[in-house]
Amino acid sequence: MKKDGTVNMDAESFLEFASQVTKWKMYPYFDVAHSVLCALHVRDDLGPGALAFSRKHPISCWLSTMLVVFAGGMLSAALLGEPPLAPLKNSQQLLIATAVWYLVFYTPFDIGYSIAKFLPVKLVFSVMKEIYRCKKVHDGVLHAAKLYPNAYVIMVLIGTLKGNGASFTKIIERLLRGVWTPTSIETLQPSFTTKACIIASVVFVLDIKSDLISAPHAFVYVFVIGFFIYFKVFSSMILGIHEPMLPFENLICAIFFGGIFDYTTKAFKNTKDDKVDTKKKD
Length: 282
Fold this sequence. Notes:
This protein is an all-alpha fold.
């Protein structure tokens, strides 16, 4: 304890806290937060005609929302040779997702949607969602590691899909609502969420399968949670920085993916053209 009466959190107490975080149960509170943000995503994606669409096509609206909620588990199961509909066997989570969907789309005076969109409420749900996302990425990496112990790419892939499966099913989700947008495929324009899930998956793989990370596993887990919360909530929602990795991506593309060579070739060609024009004038 300091002289001013404040208490320092030493390494042991923090490790104990981190260990408790790794054991947090996602049901029901984190499942609710995840479902609320998924339902908001669907409603916002529908645009101004969301209410009219939900009244005219309730089944389509429900199906697309459930696909967003369970996308990560369904995609991962399909790629690992497991039943794709297995995530839906969790009746409690399915009931929560359905109840949240109803509240977001059908409450009187649209009060459910208004409360969910209220910034302080959305911030709390967003923080909970990132903790939920870390859990999903972690569980996805562990599950893939059990099935394919030496397949590091598969571990990263499953961890990424578990953490952000909804982005990869966006085409199907919109198709369920009668909209065909083939250019919205995630591999063409990966969102920052996908990139963050890839980074988190790589960190977990290195932590589990190598000695490169010497910190306790609980420390790594809490670090990934902090990474998600800082960049997905604080940086994006508060500071408005939606692509914090863009400068690094531009640098990497310039160095490793032809940027420098293209620029050099273009500069050389322009110099050559200038010389030709000068000779013609002479």
